[in-house]
């Protein structure tokens, strides 16, 4: 059995590797061969500590990812998030590989945003409004900066001290970050990314300019919400997996019967242009197991060379 440790996977992962693996996974998710199973949402003995189990199969891979979110880790100065990926040996029904994936998961999540944004945002998009100042938000900023030449990143946070610290962190990575208020950021942005644990809209629909692309990265459980539902009727809506997005993702807040398009089907089209320059596009990432399985496979290949 192959065992990739956290140190090994963390050393091998990059935004480039994650982007290519997740792009292939999102395309695979739209294939008739793909089977993505319902997400299991669980909690630990302390109810504030939660975990999810996501599983899937396609023509080449079968496996699952267990992801945990333990806020109580703050007291021990440990990361709140952790993940582990299990790949089956499909010939024998045993676990063929274990990939420890705490850092990997952050790259994989940001890669989904980058893949969707690259397909949906205008090619000349330069300004990013980023809601969130936590662990995941920095990966989102770095991933978007890789696929668009950003001239400004407007960071919107709830806590002033954390926001200032986060802006300084992004600047250390060479990104043009600054603090901003929600309305100013939305009215200025070409791209809006939300990476929070919010349970209510972070901004108003009429603050969003025509032609803006929006990625909601934080809604992955019942009750979570980052975007104003009033925006959906005037936007083109995309997601990683429509049935999951409507159940636990951002589009759980959309009206029943709302049309959702799997981003994988967009990636396989010969043209990725918007239908109109002024279209607002929204991508909801609730996270699917094929992203984890394809990323784990790529990490195994990278560490074996």
TrEMBL record:
Name this protein carries in UniProt: Ornithine cyclodeaminase family protein
A Pfam family hit: OCD_Mu_crystall
GO cellular component, one term: cytoplasm
Superkingdom of the source species: Bacteria
């Amino acid at each position: 059995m192959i065992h990739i440790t956290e140190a090994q996977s963390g050393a091998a992962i990059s935004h480039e590797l994650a982007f290519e693996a997740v792009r292939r996974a999102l395309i695979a998710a739209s294939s008739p061969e793909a089977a993505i199973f319902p997400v299991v949402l669980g909690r630990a003995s302390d109810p504030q500590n939660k975990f999810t189990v996501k599983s899937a199969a396609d023509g080449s891979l079968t496996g699952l990812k267990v992801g945990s979110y333990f806020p109580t880790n703050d007291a021990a100065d440990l990361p709140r998030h952790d993940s582990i990926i299990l790949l089956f040996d499909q010939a024998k029904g045993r676990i063929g590989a274990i990939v420890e994936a705490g850092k990997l998961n952050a790259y994989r999540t940001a890669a989904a945003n980058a893949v969707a944004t690259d397909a949906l945002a205008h090619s000349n998009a330069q300004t990013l409004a980023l809601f969130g100042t936590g662990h995941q938000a920095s990966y989102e900023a770095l991933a978007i900066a890789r696929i668009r030449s950003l001239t400004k990143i407007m960071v919107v946070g709830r806590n002033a001290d954390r926001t200032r610290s986060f802006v300084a962190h992004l600047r250390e990575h060479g990104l043009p970050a600054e603090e901003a208020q929600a309305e100013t950021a939305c009215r200025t942005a070409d791209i809006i990314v939300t990476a929070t644990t919010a349970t209510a809209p972070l901004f108003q629909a009429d603050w969003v300019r025509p032609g803006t692309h929006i990625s909601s990265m934080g809604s992955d459980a019942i009750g979570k919400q980052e975007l104003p539902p009033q925006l959906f009727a005037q936007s083109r809506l995309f997601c990683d997996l429509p049935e999951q997005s409507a159940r636990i993702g951002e589009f759980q807040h959309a009206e029943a019967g709302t049309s959702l398009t799997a981003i994988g089907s967009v990636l396989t089209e010969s043209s990725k242009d918007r239908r109109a320059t002024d279209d607002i596009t929204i991508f909801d990432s609730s996270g699917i197991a094929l992203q984890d399985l394809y990323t784990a496979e790529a990490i195994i290949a990278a560490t074996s060379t």
